[in-house]
Amino acid sequence: MIRISVAPLFCLAPLLMAAAQTAPSPPLVSVDGLPIGAIPQQELPTGGCTAFLWTQSPSHALIAMVGATPAIIRFAPGGTVTDLVRVGQSGDIQLGLASKTDYAGGDFRVTVDMDIVKRGDMTDGAAVPSATIRVDVAGKDSVVVPAAGIIGCA
User: Distance between CA 23 and CA 11 in Å, rounded?
Assistant: First the structure.
């Protein structure tokens, strides 16, 4: 006769449940069926301002981080987190970020258009009530994603 003791397994159950509850879920590879994924939670970089943009769809996924210093966009085409450098900007500049900014690298060109609104109830940042992120990939269709977000400054 074989006896298996399950008592040690019961001791591990609370630890396994706690780990499952605190483990971050992996970012979405495709948001709302588009060829752009979610990026994982981001930290506010020190020095300068950064915009965090979420989709305006039911998923409300974090899809881009746009930095003033360094001047990059972090997004996830096909679920792969990618940073592109700023190659141009135009329009009003507030908090180091322009209302229209172009980024490029490899086969990608990304244009971010955003309304930056300073509000009295916000310090060290601003609201982005409306934005679009246009992703162009050489030889493929362009994708435009409506977004909104917030700008934080450190």
Answer: 20
